[in-house]
Backbone:
């Protein structure tokens, strides 16, 4: 089986962007690969955060991911900082990484702009840690959203550089996108994200989802109920494309174009279809919340398995580099 690796930051709640851009794909293909999924806490500490709430967020994310349908028996979901190899391999990769490539990364430029008071080296080095995540397990397939494609290409470059200098060690990884690799936020302008207040969380109740949907932006040309609309430019219709069955989508589009239905009718239909996705996730979350010890135990076991795999890679890497290969703990 090919090796699949992906990661997600524990910086808050899971939202529709995470789910339809990445996590749903993880669930759909989890039996086709040998899967590693990492809660990347070391990436998350590159921006300001509160250590007191952070520990809780890490565990909540694990509960959320299992609630989305990751199979605890079949996948290795683990916490990045529990495996020392990630930081170890990052240092090694730093020595084959040209500085200029890191400075060109879109996410670095965005985050540096947003966090001017805290442009730390970790923020710049973020893609190198991400390459180390994937390659420590010799990951080949990396299911992510559109925003991560540049980082995966960079990881492939790093693998090539290391291989050409020290001999073939790492595979060349590929990003795997979903049909919806970029979900826009409720503002209809920027991607849905935790840092912008433009998201619907997977655990939002029906009432909260409605509070967010009701005022959300639609086709700006549809001012009055009687104005015909253009579904192709409406962000709410984008969401329909993700959750609404094909036939009903056609009806909604037709209703919008002819002003047969209003934006609120359209949003109510969306609410119903969205909740068909969210309800089962929320039910599983309730159920798993009562089994916290079990989830903790699975994470511990997965951490131990990952440490073993990672140690194997690090021995190989160090041997090839002429470093002392004896793994001392
Ligand atoms: P993050 O929450 O930034 O760690 O992202 C976790 C995963 O969700 C990554 O694979 C991202 O590419 C994906 N993702 C996050 N936001 C979106 C979005 N708005 N649309 C599509 N994918 C997203
Ligand atoms: N940088 C990714 C994000 O912000 C998270 C991530 C860290 C990741 N390491 C990874 C994704 C390795 C895929 C593979 O979403």
Residues:
């Amino acid at each position: 089986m090919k090796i699949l690796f992906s990661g997600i930051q524990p910086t808050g709640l899971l939202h529709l962007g995470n789910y339809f851009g990445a996590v749903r794909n993880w669930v759909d293909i989890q039996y086709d690969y040998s899967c590693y999924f990492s809660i990347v806490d070391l990436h998350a500490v590159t921006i300001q955060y509160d250590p007191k709430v952070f520990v809780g967020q890490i565990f909540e994310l694990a509960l959320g991911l299992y609630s989305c349908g990751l199979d605890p028996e079949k996948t290795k979901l683990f916490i990045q900082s529990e495996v020392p190899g990630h930081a170890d391999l990052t240092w090694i990769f730093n020595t084959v990484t040209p500085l200029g490539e890191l400075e060109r990364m879109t996410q670095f430029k965005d985050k540096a702009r947003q966090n001017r008071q805290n442009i730390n080296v970790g923020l710049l080095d973020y893609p190198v840690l991400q390459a180390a995540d994937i390659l420590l397990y010799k990951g080949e397939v990396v299911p992510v959203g559109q925003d991560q494609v540049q980082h995966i290409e960079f990881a492939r470059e790093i693998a090539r550089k290391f291989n050409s200098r020290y001999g073939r060690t790492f595979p060349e990884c590929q990003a795997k996108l979903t049909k919806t690799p970029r979900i826009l936020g409720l503002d209809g302008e920027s991607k849905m994200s935790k840092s912008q207040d433009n998201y619907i969380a997977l655990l939002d109740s029906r009432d909260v989802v409605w509070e967010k949907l009701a005022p959300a932006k639609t086709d700006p040309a549809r001012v009055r109920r009687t104005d015909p609309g253009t579904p192709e430019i409406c962000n709410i219709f984008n969401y329909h494309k993700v959750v609404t069955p094909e036939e009903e989508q056609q009806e909604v589009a037709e209703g919008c174009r002819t002003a047969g239905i209003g934006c609120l009718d359209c949003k109510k239909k969306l609410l119903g279809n969205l909740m068909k996705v969210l309800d089962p996730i929320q039910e599983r979350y309730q159920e798993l919340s009562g089994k916290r010890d079990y989830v903790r135990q699975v994470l511990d076991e997965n951490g131990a398995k990952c440490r073993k795999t990672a140690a194997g890679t690090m021995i190989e890497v160090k041997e090839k580099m002429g470093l002392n290969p004896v793994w001392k703990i």
